[in-house]
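FAQ

Q: What does a record look like?
A: Structure on top, sequence underneath. For example:
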């Protein structure tokens, strides 16, 4: 697909009205000649992360995490698939370290570049709440629910003063169910780009 297809994936407002990626990320994707499908995917996950962050601020205001880092992390988490395009439609994790190195080489601060490595590794010892939230957005955008990941988020929110674990779980479950209800539309958006 052409560079124009990538630009369309990054700006298309047809039906879903997805939020745009941070300008720095859009510029980076264009410079790298990213596949349009990757641009569409990152945009869908970023949009879901925006919804999650807004919901958390409203319902769990005592939970401390770097909101800006979550949103940036969601926008770049799969950037390594530029080097591993086979992982755009198939399994693989080679893109994780490649994406981290690519971002570091491009001058992106490590605290933001790390999301390329941590978005699928939520049991690592160095994982922070922001990493969990990027991982959660990367799953629920397509309607996938991962009990282990959700339990880690519940534990974090409950420990941050969000209430009893069962109450936090019920609230999070309702929000993730609401977000997942639009998964087919987000998947169709991504599929339109390859």
């Amino acid at each position: 697909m052409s560079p124009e297809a990538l630009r369309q994936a990054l700006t298309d407002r047809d039906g879903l009205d997805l939020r745009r990626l941070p300008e720095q990320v859009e510029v980076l994707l264009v410079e790298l000649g990213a596949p349009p499908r990757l641009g569409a995917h990152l945009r869908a996950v970023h949009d879901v992360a925006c919804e999650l962050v807004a919901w958390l601020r409203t319902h769990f205001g005592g939970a401390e995490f770097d909101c800006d880092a979550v949103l940036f992390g969601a926008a770049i988490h799969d950037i390594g698939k530029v080097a591993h395009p086979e992982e755009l439609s198939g399994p693989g994790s080679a893109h994780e370290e490649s994406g981290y190195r690519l971002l570091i080489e491009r001058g992106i601060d490590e605290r933001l570049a790390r999301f390329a490595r941590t978005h699928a590794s939520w049991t690592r010892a160095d994982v922070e709440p922001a990493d969990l939230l990027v991982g959660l957005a990367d799953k629920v955008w397509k309607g996938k629910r991962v009990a282990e990941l959700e339990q880690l988020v519940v534990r974090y929110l409950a420990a941050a003063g969000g209430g009893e674990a069962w109450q936090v779980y019920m609230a999070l479950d309702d929000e993730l169910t609401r977000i997942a209800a639009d998964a087919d539309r987000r998947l169709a958006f991504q599929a339109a780009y390859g």
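Q: Is there anything notable about this one?
A: The mean pLDDT is 94.
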